[in-house]
């Protein structure tokens, strides 16, 4: 068990050459994706990759200006893809559950199904001050990475179910972005429930606990919605 954990951590610190790249992605015409935090970093690269496949992609971002700039960067890049997709923006702030609900409602007004939700948005371990809370008063890391992401996912379940009724088996998915710190940075037994609401002075530990929470949410969703044809996985 210990050796397996060490090998897993090593592969995350020093990832091997990829066996699946953008060249392996088949056409995604007619499929609908949401990528939270899609205006920067990994989310931006994912949206850029999907744009070349003919998919409809919703870039969920808390900044209208940054999202518009990111969309322009992707759609005006050369050479133009043979089968360009469509990128739409969703205003979405993990720090405020009202914003999360508004984003889900906006999506529901525009689409009847959702093929893939990628819960990518978040902040780093030092992205908030000690004792910081969300608008609704939750400890910032757990509030954003777990509570807000879970609410957004829950509100989109009807659209995921709708997609699963006609999509190929295993193709309707929810992806939760975790971290190697979910394994290596958490306290004994993973989560200290006595400090879950208040957090600790250790910002990295607070982050690690929230990323373990993403893994747990992904696993629980896989159990609950397997019969609906929805695949739920966590990734680093």
CATH level-1 class: Alpha Beta
Query: Which percent range describes the beta-strand content?
Result: 5-15%
Distance between the termini: 20 Å
CA-atom Rg in angstroms: 18 Å
Pfam families: adh_short (PF00106)
Protein name: Short-chain dehydrogenase
InterPro entries: NAD(P)-bd_dom_sf, SDR_fam
GO molecular function: oxidoreductase activity
Output the keywords.
Short-chain dehydrogenase, 6 strands, Rossmann fold, 236 residues, SDR_fam, alpha/beta, oxidoreductase, globular
Q: How does the SSE layout of this entry go?
A:
Blueprint: H1 2-13, E1 32-36, H2 41-51, E2 56-61, H3 64-75, E3 86-91, H4 97-110, E4 116-119, H5 140-155, H6 157-164, E5 173-177, H7 181-184, H8 203-225, E6 231-235
Parallel strand pairs: 1-2, 1-4, 2-3, 4-5, 5-6
Written account of the structure:
Keywords: Oxidoreductase. Pfam families: adh_short (PF00106). InterPro entries: NAD(P)-bd_dom_sf, SDR_fam. This is Short-chain dehydrogenase. GO terms for molecular function: oxidoreductase activity. With 236 residues, the chain is of the alpha/beta class. The protein has a single domain (28-235), classed as NAD(P)-binding Rossmann-like Domain (Rossmann fold). It contains 8 helices and 6 strands. It has helices at residues 2-13, 41-51, 64-75, 97-110, 140-155, 157-164, 181-184, 203-225, and strands at residues 32-36, 56-61, 86-91, 116-119, 173-177, 231-235. Strands 3-2-1-4-5-6 form a 6-stranded parallel β-sheet, sandwiched between helices. The longest helix is centred in the last third of the chain and has 23 residues, at 203-225. The chain is globular, with a radius of gyration of 18 Å.
């Amino acid at each position: 068990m210990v050796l397996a954990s060490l090998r897993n951590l090593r592969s995350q610190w020093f990832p091997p050459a990829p066996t699946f790249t953008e060249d392996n992605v088949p056409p995604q015409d007619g499929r609908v994706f949401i990528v939270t935090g899609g205006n920067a970093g990994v989310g931006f690269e994912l949206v850029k990759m999907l744009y070349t496949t003919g998919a409809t992609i919703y870039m969920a971002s808390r900044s209208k200006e940054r999202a518009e700039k990111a969309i322009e960067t992707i759609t005006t890049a050369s050479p133009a893809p043979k089968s360009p997709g469509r990128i739409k923006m969703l205003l979405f702030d993990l720090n405020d559950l009202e914003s999360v609900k508004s984003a889900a409602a906006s999506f529901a007004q525009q689409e009847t199904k959702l093929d893939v939700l990628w819960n990518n948005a978040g902040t780093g371990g030092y992205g908030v001050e000690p004792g910081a809370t969300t608008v609704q008063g939750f400890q910032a890391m757990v509030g954003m990475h777990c509570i807000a992401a879970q609410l957004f996912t829950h509100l989109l379940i009807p659209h995921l179910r709708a997609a699963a009724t006609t999509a190929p088996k295993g193709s309707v998915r929810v992806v939760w972005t975790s971290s190697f710190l979910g394994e290596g940075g958490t306290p004994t037994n993973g989560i200290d429930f006595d400090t879950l609401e208040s957090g600790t002075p250790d910002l990295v530990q607070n982050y690690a606990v929230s990323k373990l929470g993403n893994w747990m949410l992904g696993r629980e969703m896989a159990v609950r919605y397997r019969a609906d044809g929805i695949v739920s996985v966590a990734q680093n």
